[in-house]
Amino acid sequence: MSLQISSLNAGYGRQQILHDVSIDDMKSGEMVGVIGPNAAGKSTFFKSLTGIVRPRSGYVSLDDQDILSMRRKQRARQVAYMPQSIGCNAALTVFESVLLALKQTTGWRVGADHLNKVSNILSMLGLCHLADRGIGALSGGQSQMVAVAQVLVRKPKLLLLDEPTSALDLHHQLSILSAIRDAAKEFDIIVMAALHDLNLAAKFCDRLVLIREGRVLADGEPREILGLEALNETYRIRASIEKSSLGTYYVDAQLP
After folding, report:
1. pLDDT tens per residue across span 151-172
2. Looking at residue 186, which CATH number applies to its domain?
3. Chain segment 54-72, per-residue pLDDT in tens
4. In total, how many domains does the chain have?
5. Pairing mode, if any, of strands 31-35 and 207-212?
6. 60, 210, 241 from 225: Cα distances, Å
7. Around 137, how many Cα atoms within 13 Å sit in the side-chain half-sphere?
8. Are 220 and 213 in contact (CB under 8 A)?
9. Interior/surface letters 52-78, b for 16+ CB within 10 angstroms, e for the rest
10. Which of 52, 79, 102, 249 is most enclosed, with most CB atoms within 10 A?
11. Residue 131 half-sphere exposure, CB side, CA atoms within 13 Å?
12. Domain residues for 186?
């Protein structure tokens, strides 16, 4: 399975945000980090793929199907989206909230197989101890993990995560991204995650796409992208890529 994005254009009213965005040959099992400064167009890009924002032109092929031409319910089975803000005060338990997310794409009759799917996802993410807890009583990190469970339980072909680690401590950042990367491999899905932390992007992503002002500036392996002069220009920094004592690469950055 692969994802191809060709000449995607989108915006709001008269304002165009995305300009001929093209990304080739994203493979199942791959985690792609979408990086770029604030207001680069990352959220609009994800919303265009889900149908929240209707693209003005372009073509998006997922497993040889044009997802832009799909009806909303059909696309929801193929593409799952986790936005930046997930706040929810509904009187549901964690188990119920994940089950509800599953049923939105399968119809409302609940069978044993549906209950097993929810249990398996909670187990995979280490959330079984929270199954009966109300979602309004969770910490920020726990809420983010439950949100990940809600999108993963549907086993989409394409998973879009808009800043999944925002406002989380380092432990929860590592936990969430580790779980997402493992799920991409286990479920054989394509994951695209908008990330601000370049070091987390370098650590967890197989590939990075650098976006500025709604245009793709670079696309490739993390070590390659993080070493480009375009990165310095985009973020208005001076940066170099270094190798840590753990054998991973990280960005050492400062203001120019």
Report:
1. 999 889 999 999 998 878 898 8
2. 3.40.50.300
3. 999 999 999 889 999 888 8
4. 1
5. parallel
6. 24, 8, 10
7. 9
8. no
9. ebebeebebebeeeebbebeeeebbeb
10. 79
11. 15
12. 2-254
